[in-house]
Amino acid sequence: MSHPTEPLPELDDATLAFAEQVFDCARNGDGARLGELLDQGMPANLCNHAGDSLLMLASYHGHIVASRILLEHGADPQLRNRRGHSPLAGAAFKGDLAMIKLLLEHGADVEGRCEDGKTALMMAAMFNRTAIIEYLASQGADPLASDASGATALAAARMMGAADAETLLQRISA
């Protein structure tokens, strides 16, 4: 395994082009091709230059089948990108309840935090995603948890003017 201080090997243009095609498969939801490559030994946790894993790309773009294939081949639902975001946080941001359910079924931490301490529940609250708030709370998300600045999901909803989320969080936080 490489250490962070060791230089990375130079990759030729053909290898770089192939890698970009692989990330495009995830981004575009080509689960069949991803499955073939995974069966041939491609690492399920392969990441691009931004630290986005194949699962991050597939899940962020709403590709359930491709995400399921990656998860079934060992993709880590906790793997964060260089910005500290997880697939679960991305799915909450996008409002994708089906993806959130899939990620949690495969081991994503409902209380997992981004670098700024925000949870998926806080992301859902910010964008007034009440169905996601209800589901995450039913799965054990703590509505009273706070981020690095001390803000809770309720505070995030208030700050963003997410009135329905605010009302719901007041009820479930009581």
Automatic annotation (TrEMBL):
<protein>
    <submittedName>
        <fullName>Ankyrin repeat domain-containing protein</fullName>
    </submittedName>
</protein>
<dbReference type="Pfam" id="PF12796">
    <property type="entry name" value="Ank_2"/>
</dbReference>
<keyword id="KW-0040">ANK repeat</keyword>
<feature type="repeat" description="ANK">
    <location>
        <begin position="50"/>
        <end position="82"/>
    </location>
</feature>
<feature type="repeat" description="ANK">
    <location>
        <begin position="116"/>
        <end position="148"/>
    </location>
</feature>
<dbReference type="InterPro" id="IPR039323">
    <property type="entry name" value="ANKRD_45/46/60"/>
</dbReference>
<dbReference type="InterPro" id="IPR002110">
    <property type="entry name" value="Ankyrin_rpt"/>
</dbReference>
<feature type="repeat" description="ANK">
    <location>
        <begin position="83"/>
        <end position="115"/>
    </location>
</feature>
<dbReference type="InterPro" id="IPR036770">
    <property type="entry name" value="Ankyrin_rpt-contain_sf"/>
</dbReference>
